[in-house]
TrEMBL record:
The keyword Cytoplasm applies. Keywords: Cytoplasm. It comes from the Bacteria. One of its GO terms (cellular component) is cytoplasm. It comes from Floricoccus tropicus. Belongs to the UPF0291 family. Coiled coil: none annotated. Its main location: cytoplasm. This is UPF0291 protein BG261_09610. The lineage of its organism: Bacteria, Bacillati, Bacillota, Bacilli, Lactobacillales. It is found in: Cytoplasm.
Amino acid sequence: MAITDEHINRINELARKKKAEGLTPEELEEQAKLRKAYIEGVKGSLRSQIEGVKVVDEEGNDVTPDKLKKVQAEKGIHGRTLEDLND
């Protein structure tokens, strides 16, 4: 599920209601599902940002960790290919 502004608004609405008066079992379940989807979205976004990082030293040499280079090659990021890793 892609998180929309409506989802964020509903998460906040449920949080306010929980604090003020409590939630029904159905609302607790809805809140848990929305929170899980939100957290997964944040994790995915962070993963994408990290996978896009290219580390370069002061001399301009690519010093990106091999593990990250492999992920980038698998996804074709920064023009990397799996064949490049074998060179």
